[in-house]
Structure formats: C-alpha cells, structure tokens
Amino acid sequence: MHPDHCLASYTYELPEDRIAQTPAAQRQDSKLMSVRRQDGGTRIHGFADLPSLLPEGTLLVANNSKVIPARLYGSKPTGGRVEFLLLTPLPLLEPVQDADGLHMAEAWGLLRASKAPKAGQIVNLGPDFFLRVLERAEFGRSRVALFWRGDLQRLMEKQGRMPLPPYIRREAQTEDKSRYQTIYAKDDKAGSVAAPTAGLHFTPEVRSALKQRGCQWAEVTLYVGYGTFSPVREPDIRNHVMHEEYIEVPRETAAAVQRAKDEGRPVLAVGTTSARTLEGMHRALGRIGPYKGMTDIFIRPGYTFRVVDNLLTNFHLPESSLLIMVSALVGREAILNAYSQALRNDFRFFSYGDAMLIS
User: Fold this and answer.
1) What would you measure as the largest C-alpha separation in the chain, in angstroms?
2) 248 contacts 192 by C-beta, under 8 angstroms
C-alpha cells in the first residue's frame, strides 16, 4: 500500500504538555508557521504578521457559524447525575410541536453517567426541558428525543456549557464563552457544537490590517458537528466514510470567489471547515455557485483542489481526517516535517493552539 493511503503514515509523537489547554493571552499572540506549497519550506512568524504574508488581493473565506453551549447537565428520575453533549447541530433538528406547545426533535448525543441511561429512560435537563433515550449506538453515541418549551437555543445558552474538545482536560470557564468563538460568528448561524478554530486567532486589528493590505473577506457557513473529532479507523484511508455536514455558500460569496479566480487572485480558506465547504460546493455543483446542502467530501492526498489555493489552519490530531486533508494540499511528508519543526519550536497544538499558513 502506498504510504499516502496508510492511516499509520499520518501519526506523530505529541507530548501531552503541548496540547493547549487555554487560549493565548490575546488572540493574535499565537505563533504562525508558514509552509510553502511549492517545496514544503517553513518559516516562523506571529499571527499578527499574517497580512504581510498574503499577496495583495487575497480573498479570505471564513466560516461564520457560531458555537452553542451544547454540553448540558441533568439527572435521571432516580437522582443520578447525567452529562449530555448534543452532537446534532441545531439547524439540522426537525422539531414538531404538540397541541400543548411542547416541542420534540430527534438528535444524536453523548451521554455520560455512573450508570448509563438505557433506551426508554428520561433525563431531566431543566424546567420544561428533558430527553428520552431512544437507542444506544457505537462509540458512546445515543439517539435521543429532545423535549422543550420555548426557544431551544435560548434554553441551551442559559443552561449549557461550551463544548470544549475532549483533549482539553478541564471544565469550561466563563472565558471560554467568548474565546471558543470567532469574533465574526453570526447569531443567526448558531448551531455548531465545535468551533472553527483557525478563525479564533483573528482580532479587529488583524482584520483591519488585512483590509489595508487590499485583501478581501467573504463568509460561508458549515455547522461543525462532533464528527470533526471522530478518528479515522480504516487502516486504508481510502475506505474511510466521512461524516456529513451541512454547508451554505451564499450568492455573494460564490460571486467573490469566482471574481478572484477570474482575476488570478488566491482564495485562502480560513480553516478546514471553510475548505471543505468550498470544495464540497464545487463537487455538488460541478462549478462555483451558491449552494445549501450536505457534504460528505473526504479530501486526502491525490485530491485536486478546485477552489482553494491556500489554507490557514491549526495543528491537528494524529491519524485525523483533518491532518489527512492538510496533507492533500502540501504533501504528507512536508506536513509531518512542519509538525516536527513546530514541536521543536514550542508551538501549541489543537483548538486553542497555534496556527499554520499553507500557501
């Protein structure tokens, strides 16, 4: 088997203390490693240097989805404590309402308790807010029926906690409500259960410097599900089936991307979710255009990028679909070499960690 197809080829040794447990003191204080697509060459910068590293006229495309406090705490009728992490993005729920004003929608989630609730059991999450377990599935997931009155997003904002990834080994704090969220997340795009983390580094000052540089900005929406953390389990990655995610490319963004392409200006995806949205749009339509729908595109070495020229991203987990995706843009060996250099230069990894620019 060619190494590019072998899951074991996408691993590296990562000391536990290199996994960022907290964000940088200021968003733009993160480090930034630039990697040349042409030859894999690397240089080290600060994230605030980003505008000076981009060609004038670069179009940045960012994911404006907003993270909801998707981690809820409740109890069984017997009083046992239960933790529930909603996995299904809010916009993908299909609620129905009964004559008494009670909403119900099926969803997927993770249930944790000293004794896991069985199918048919109720978990109380708050006043007029509970779930019934419908079935237990593999990898700890459960299919549940959610019941609530009023506005579900407001309920979760009031009672939930930010769904920090499993490798951040602490409870979410008040600070995480703002820091595990991009500054450009839209209230009407709330529903993600994980942050599009490449965007966490941006500040109004960096955005302003980009504008002064002549760079343009456009937005797409991908509601990030917990599947983004799901490991690839197939030894031959060609057999991996990617999870589906809902994406939106608005008309004005499609037009901006087409203009950039026509004028020979680079399209820089801010994060793997933006890259997946743009490439998923092109696969669905066969061209650049407005799109709303699901994508299960799996980008791996050998893939030909149709829209994305450059990528801003964080450092990803070993053997993850995200590490495989960035390897498709610059090459597996070049990425692993860059990761090795990042470790030698005290870079911080994963969601609250440092950034990489592939161009």
Assistant:
1) 65
2) no
Amino acid at 188: D
Same domain, 259 and 337: yes
* Angle CA 109–224–316, to nearest 5: 105
Residue 111 has pLDDT above 80, yes or no: yes
Same domain, residue pair 335 and 240: yes
- Are residue 33 and residue 14 in the same domain, yes or no? yes
Gap between the Cα atoms of 281 and 162, Å rounded: 29
Same domain, 313 and 185: yes
State both tokens at 15. 């000391």
Question: 181 and 202, same structural domain?
Answer: yes
* Section 6-16 average pLDDT: 96
Query: Which residues touch 92 (CB under 8 Å, ≥6 apart)?
Result: 191, 223, 246
Q: Report how far residue 261's alpha carbon sits from residue 59's, in angstroms, rounded to the nearest whole number.
A: 10
Q: Are residues 181 and 248 in the same domain?
A: yes
d(CA 45, CA 34): 8
Evaluated on CA atoms 308, 311, 317, 323, the torsion sign reads positive
CA 332 to chain centre: 21
CB contact at 8 A, 111 and 82: yes
Place of tokens 């692993």: 336
Separation between Cα atoms, residue 274 and residue 285, nearest integer Å: 17
Domain boundary among 104, 125, 160: 160
On whether both 39 and 119 belong to a single domain, the answer is: no
The predicted model scores a pTM of: 0.94
Q: Tell which of 125, 160, 195 closes a domain.
A: 160
**Domains in the chain, number:** 2
Distance CA 31, CA 4 (A): 28
pLDDT, tens digit, 9 for 90 and up, residues 157-189: 999 999 999 899 999 999 999 999 999 999 999
